[in-house]
Design goal:
Blueprint lengths: L1 E2 H8 L3 H9 L7 E2 L6 E3 L3 H13 L4 H9 L3 H35 L13 E5 L2 E10 L4 H14 L3 E2 L4 E4 L9 E10 L11 E5 L2 E9 L6 H13 L2 E3 L4 E6 L11 E10 L4
Antiparallel strand pairs: 1-3, 2-3, 4-10, 5-8, 5-9, 6-8, 7-8, 7-12, 10-13, 11-13, 12-13
Length: about 270
């Protein structure tokens, strides 16, 4: 048998890490001396140690490694390898996108440190409009999927759509895993629509609306909201309903993120004169 010091030399793994793997029940010593606490390992455990080390390099978590070590099912192992390849590939694609965005910032000399974007604010009247709406609790990453599903179900119900989707966010704070969102799509209302328990048809009343356009990633859409808030306050208006975002151009257009176009709308009303 090998002492923990010698075993750590053979597998190029620190004694501290071996103790941690013992605690996690990944690689337990075959014998622990009750008098001095020394740990001993067998030659056969070297293969397990090296496999564990390799799986860590492959970005497997300790619970995943534990599953692999305890199973003799090669199909399970191959399936987990394929899943990890997909996970790392998606991560690489995301990193490549980040690198491309950073490179674009350098080339276009974008200054995100000393200044933020400027927005043109327009004030106009929104006429009364009929919409089909659905309020959902969702992971924000699944929003495109929910919108696509909403479109499909509404069209199946003989409802004629008349525009692009909008969303109202009701959360007091941003919680990406569980967002309270109302999706709305304008419709041409008739009398033969099939009403579902999943959504409602309602009329949005005529209102004064302050709007602006945000071009690019949703990550920076907060700047547009800030611009509208500042304009509303400085021009003697206050909110007359929840703000909403209308997605004029997004992922469904098969375009780059920098080409996304989102309209942000604030229903407003003049403040009462004190």
């Amino acid at each position: 048998m090998y002492t923990i010091s010698r075993f750590s030399q053979l597998c190029k793994m620190s004694a501290r890490m071996l103790r941690h793997y013992d605690k996690e029940e990944l690689l337990k010593p075959v014998h622990v001396d009750t008098t001095n606490g020394y740990r001993y390992y067998e030659k056969s455990q070297l293969e397990t140690a090296l496999l564990t080390k390799k799986l860590k390099e492959y970005r497997f978590s300790l619970p995943e490694i534990r599953t692999i070590l305890r199973s003799s099912d090669s199909t399970l192992f191959i399936g987990m390898i394929h899943a990890k390849i997909n996970e790392i590939s998606n991560e690489m694609n995301r990193y490549n996108q980040i690198i491309a965005e950073m490179q674009e910032m350098i080339e276009e000399k974008v200054d995100l440190i000393r200044g933020r974007r400027t927005y043109d604010i327009l004030l106009g009247m929104r006429n009364e409009i009929s919409v089909v709406s659905q309020r959902l609790q969702m992971n924000i990453a699944d929003m495109d999927r929910y919108i696509d599903s909403f479109y499909d179900k509404v069209e199946e119900s003989n409802i004629q759509l008349f525009g692009v989707p909008s969303a109202i966010f009701f959360d007091e704070e941003f919680t990406p895993d569980y967002c309270d969102i109302e999706l709305m799509i304008p419709i041409i209302q008739r009398n033969d629509e099939k009403i579902s328990r999943e959504w409602q048809i309602k009329k949005l009343p005529q209102k004064i609306i302050a709007t602006t356009l945000h071009i690019g990633s949703y990550d920076y859409i907060g700047y547009a909201h800030m611009a509208l808030e500042e304009w509303t306050e400085s021009n003697g208006y206050c909110l007359d309903g929840p703000p909403y975002e209308t997605y004029l151009k997004g992922s469904e257009c098969d375009c780059q993120v920098k080409e996304y176009v989102t309209q942000i709308s604030f229903p407003v009303i003049k403040k009462a004169i004190q």
